[in-house]
Amino acid sequence: MKAIILKEAGGVENLIIKDIPVPSPAKGEVLIKVNALSVNPVDIKTRKGMALYNSLKESEYVILGWDVSGEVVELGEGVTALEIGQEVFGMVNFPGHGKAYAEYVIAPANHLADKPDQITHQEAAASSLAALTAWQVLMQQAKVQSGERVLMHAAAGGVGHFGVQIAKYLGAYVIGTGSDVNYDFVKELGADEYVDYTSEQFEEVIQNIDIVFDAVGGDNPKRSLNSLRSGGLLIAIAGGITDEVKKLAEEKGIKALSYMVQSNGDDMEQLAELLEAGTIKPYIFKEFSFSEIGEAHRQIETGRTRGKIVINI
Ligand SMILES: NC(=O)c1ccc[n+]([C@@H]2O[C@H](COP(=O)([O-])OP(=O)(O)OC[C@H]3O[C@@H](n4cnc5c(N)ncnc54)[C@H](OP(=O)(O)O)[C@@H]3O)[C@@H](O)[C@H]2O)c1
Fold this sequence. Notes:
Layout: E1 2-6, E2 15-19, E3 29-39, H1 41-47, H2 53-56, E4 67-75, E5 87-91, E6 104-108, E7 112-114, H3 121-126, H4 129-141, E8 149-152, H5 158-169, E9 173-178, H6 183-189, E10 193-196, H7 202-205, E11 209-214, H8 220-224, E12 228-236, H9 243-251, E13 255-258, H10 265-277, E14 284-289, H11 293-301, E15 308-312
Parallel strand pairs: 8-9, 8-11, 9-10, 11-12, 12-13, 14-15
Antiparallel strand pairs: 1-2, 3-4, 3-6, 3-15, 4-5, 5-7
This protein binds NADP nicotinamide-adenine-dinucleotide phosphate.
């Protein structure tokens, strides 16, 4: 099979298409023939030697990627929940070695969900890591309640565009941040308000927030403390919470935590139900072919992608 190997940490020229043997599923795993996969910022960070690179670099082949959608073609021992021919999608083995940039991918059966017939493989792949992050943060970490005020930073991005939709589904009042070009997009996702960070400082215009979901990083978590009410919650997924932010948050009676998404098939099933019902919809900004992986990485690196990037196999 063809796979995209990361030769060593560095630029996109280190992503090389190579023929390697099709892997065999072990106990509890399945082999998926991949139709589409999606690219996330963690792929780019890992390619550059950051994020998960150190934990993957000793493998025979470092293969990036975690989001897949395709068809089950082989079952490992003991797998009864899935069957051959079934269309599945999910985030595979995160934060381990997902090896999704390949024609065939091995996945633990309990990281996957049945792909709804109503959505394409491209849409399903796009609704894996980013959607799961938004789901786990809003549903499980923040336990968003109806009527709560949620500030979603980077509301037009991969995570953010699902975050807006999921927070609305949970009954929240949602304020998104992004640049002027994404105003209409984020409002159409259901956001009640939008702050254009190129013309306004969000912390000067947005107050009394119950939950900040930060997918930007940098000084955004610190600045967000000024928008939160005492007793509010800050969850940062990009870069985490520094000691300084933690201390300032404590002084203000705000809980601040960082979060990393985990593979989970039960959560994927819940997302599949929302996708099937049309309650949440992925937005695919651009599709690339397998050999255009470098361009896909460069697109994510702009930091300006709307929704998701998909690779067709
Ligand atoms: N910890 C975890 O488990 C986890 C999981 C998923 C992602 N992440 C991290 O979270 C971050 C976001 O991921 P993603 O997939 O959503 O990335 P993405 O799709 O590349 O995000 C791009 C979006 O960010 C927006 N943006 C850029 N700067 C902004 C700013 N200062 N304020 C508001 N919006 C801004 C852009 O909107 P404009 O074009 O309008 O500027 C664009 O739509 C990445 O660092 C990623 O690694 C962490």
